[in-house]
Model the fold of this input.
Amino acid sequence: MFSNIGVPGLILILVLALIIFGPKKLPEIGRAFGQTLKEFKKSTRELTEDVIEDIQDEKEKLTK
Done:
């Protein structure tokens, strides 16, 4: 998705974020984004595990 942005594009985005939000607010935004990403990954992992567990349960029921 972001493979075609490149280094100049990333620098531009970071400079714009710094200008818009300021140096004091930027770390807070980064932390919040990191926490959101962490929670999303955790939820995705749990959902995947639940689906795999359900599939295994169905396979066991069919083999009995």
